């Protein structure tokens, strides 16, 4: 089998994994959003408690529209929780809230991977925006220099995704430990927390794998064009 065709098949398989991972995270969130946490605390209450316990009294907690739109904003130093998380006392809600607080704690402690990610963001944002146009233009015009530049910029965007992995895994690890230590969950509830956080982590792994395979495919196309 031609290696370019083989890589294309791998890319399609990885794309399928991305779609499956997205369905899984939504399914896990929906399932465990129906299970009330024994602590009875809402996502907001858990977030506020974690932040205060770690001396982050100046970090705000705000609701944001949508579902699975939860994130930590390092610029305004705000944990933003989707409304289903902010107001709910479910396993899903407190798991997500704890995870986002994990990012706020990383920021306070200047966690290495997070610092690197923040520094890479402006360049990665620019690169991911322009790389597709250079890649497509290079292929259509048969301009190898243009295509090569597109590959370099795309590689920057992929590197950003790779750096994101330890940031997300570390935030989830912190969240689990905090939830157990603070008594937000009981032992039998750890399974649900794991399901929610692992499903979310899988989406990052799948997306990164897809991006890496795409990068390798572009490199092979570039090398074959020079033959």
Description:
The protein has 227 residues and is mostly helical. The protein has one domain (3-225). Helices cover 74% and strands 6% of the residues. It has helices at 3-32, 43-53, 83-86, 91-109, 112-141, 144-181, 190-225, and strands at 60-64, 71-73, 78-82. Strands 1-3-2 form a 3-stranded mixed beta sheet. Strand 2 and strand 3 (78-82) form a beta hairpin. Helix 2 (43-53) packs parallel to helix 4. The radius of gyration is 20 Å and the shape is elongated. The two termini are 19 Å apart. The chain crosses the membrane at residues 6-23, 123-141, 147-169, 196-223. It comes from Melghirimyces algeriensis. Keywords: Membrane, Transmembrane, Transmembrane helix.
Topology:
Layout: H1 3-32, H2 43-53, E1 60-64, E2 71-73, E3 78-82, H3 83-86, H4 91-109, H5 112-141, H6 144-181, H7 190-225
Parallel strand pairs: 1-3
Antiparallel strand pairs: 2-3
Helix pairs in contact: 1-7, 2-4, 4-6, 4-7, 5-6, 6-7
**What is the ordering of alpha helices and beta strands?**
HHEEEHHHHH
Q: How would you classify the helix and strand content by structural class?
A: mainly alpha
The overall average pLDDT, rounded, is 94
Secondary structure tally, helices: 7
**Largest sheet composition:** 3 strands, mixed
Shape: elongated
**Proportion of residues in extended strands:** 5-15%
Protein name: Peptidase
Keywords: Membrane, Transmembrane, Transmembrane helix
Transmembrane segments: 6-23, 123-141, 147-169, 196-223
């Amino acid at each position: 089998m031609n290696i370019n065709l083989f890589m294309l098949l791998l890319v399609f398989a990885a794309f399928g994994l991305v779609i499956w991972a997205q369905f899984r995270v939504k399914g896990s969130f929906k399932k465990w959003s129906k299970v009330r946490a024994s602590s009875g605390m809402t996502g907001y209450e858990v977030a506020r408690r974690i932040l205060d316990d770690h001396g982050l009294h100046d970090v705000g907690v705000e609701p944001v529209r949508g579902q699975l739109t939860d994130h930590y904003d390092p610029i305004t130093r705000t944990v933003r929780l989707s409304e289903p998380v902010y107001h709910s006392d479910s396993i899903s809600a407190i798991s997500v809230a704890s995870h986002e607080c994990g990012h706020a704690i990383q920021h306070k402690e200047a966690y290495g991977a997070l610092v690197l990610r923040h520094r890479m963001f402006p360049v990665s944002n620019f690169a991911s925006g322009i790389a597709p146009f250079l890649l497509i233009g290079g292929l259509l015009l048969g301009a190898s220099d243009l295509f090569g530049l597109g590959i370099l910029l795309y590689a920057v965007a992929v590197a950003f995704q790779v750096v994101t992995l330890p940031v997300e895994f570390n935030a989830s690890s912190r969240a689990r430990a905090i939830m157990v230590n603070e008594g937000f969950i009981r032992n039998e509830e750890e399974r649900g927390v794991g399901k929610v956080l692992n499903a979310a982590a899988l989406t990052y792994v799948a997306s990164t794998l897809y991006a890496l395979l795409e990068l390798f495919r572009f490199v092979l196309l570039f090398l074959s064009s020079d033959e």
